[in-house]
């Protein structure tokens, strides 16, 4: 459908341009027309043909549901490093599979502090999570106050490269939507015993129903 619409619109635009050129030549044969005015006539014919072609194309070849409905693409959940203390950046997104932390300007997370080595540590994204690894920084790497060589980070961990501390925040996963109440019952719910209201004696083989002192409804599966 899209190809048909664009083909129709292209033909209409070319026809409009041809009409504009022929009309301009006809006018020039009758009278002297400045070059600027000739260009203006052709341009107006081109724009008019585009508008008419677009409107006619939508009328003859209306968009399908596949064209009008755009699927929602969920945002990629990222982990974050949040610096602790004042006067620092708001945070560093861990949006790559391999992130280098250090004082070098080429590092993915640049930490400009004298206690941090040029290439101090790295964070590698694995299937199990985010692995924090020491790259031989002179002042070491720490997680929650303990010196480590490698450590699989968890939500809320405090890592330290040199004297700089950062909070690790795990990716935020979208929560599943909550199910609606009674007006959106599934087939299994409709076929469950609780969904079959019985009035005593309407079904064969059903015994007397228990008495409810509070007057609420009582439900029972037929045998």
Explain what this protein looks like in three dimensions.
With 223 residues, the chain is of the alpha+beta class. β7 and β8 (146-147) form a beta hairpin. The strands form two sheets. A six-stranded antiparallel β-sheet has the order 2-1-11-10-7-8, with no helix packed on it. A five-stranded mixed β-sheet has the order 4-3-5-6-9, with no helix packed on it. The chain has helices spanning 2-30, 35-60, 65-68, 187-190; strands at residues 79-83, 92-94, 98-102, 109-110, 121-125, 130-134, 141-143, 146-147, 150-152, 158-161, 164-169. Helices cover 28% and strands 19% of the residues. The relative contact order is 0.09. The longest helix has 29 residues, at 2-30. It is built from four helices and eleven strands.
Concise synopsis of the structure shown:
The chain is of the alpha+beta class and 223 residues long. The chain is built from 4 helices and 11 strands.
Write the layout of secondary structure elements.
Layout: H1 2-30, H2 35-60, H3 65-68, E1 79-83, E2 92-94, E3 98-102, E4 109-110, E5 121-125, E6 130-134, E7 141-143, E8 146-147, E9 150-152, E10 158-161, E11 164-169, H4 187-190
Parallel strand pairs: 3-4
Antiparallel strand pairs: 1-2, 1-11, 3-5, 5-6, 6-9, 7-8, 7-10, 10-11
Helix pairs in contact: 1-2
């Amino acid at each position: 459908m899209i190809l048909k619409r664009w083909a129709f619109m292209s033909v209409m635009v070319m026809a409009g341009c041809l009409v504009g050129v022929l009309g301009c030549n006809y006018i020039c044969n009758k009278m002297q027309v400045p070059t600027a005015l000739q260009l203006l006539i052709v341009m107006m014919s081109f724009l008019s043909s585009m508008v008419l072609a677009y409107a006619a194309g939508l009328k003859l070849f209306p968009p399908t549901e596949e064209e009008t409905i755009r699927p929602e693409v969920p945002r990629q959940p990222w982990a974050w490093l949040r610096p602790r203390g004042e006067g620092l950046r708001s945070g560093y997104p861990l949006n790559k599979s391999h992130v280098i932390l250090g004082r070098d300007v080429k590092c993915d997370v640049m930490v400009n502090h004298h206690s941090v080595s040029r290439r101090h540590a790295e964070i590698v994204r694995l299937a199990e999570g985010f692995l924090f690894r020491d790259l031989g920084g002179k002042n070491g790497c720490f997680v929650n106050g303990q010196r480590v060589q490698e450590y699989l980070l968890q939500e809320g961990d405090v890592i330290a490269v040199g004297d700089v501390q950062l909070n690790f925040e795990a990716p935020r996963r979208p929560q599943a939507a909550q199910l609606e109440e009674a007006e959106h019952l599934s087939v299994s719910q409709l076929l469950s015993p609780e969904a079959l209201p019985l009035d005593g004696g309407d079904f064969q083989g059903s015994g007397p129903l228990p008495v409810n002192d509070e007057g609420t409804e009582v439900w029972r599966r037929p045998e």
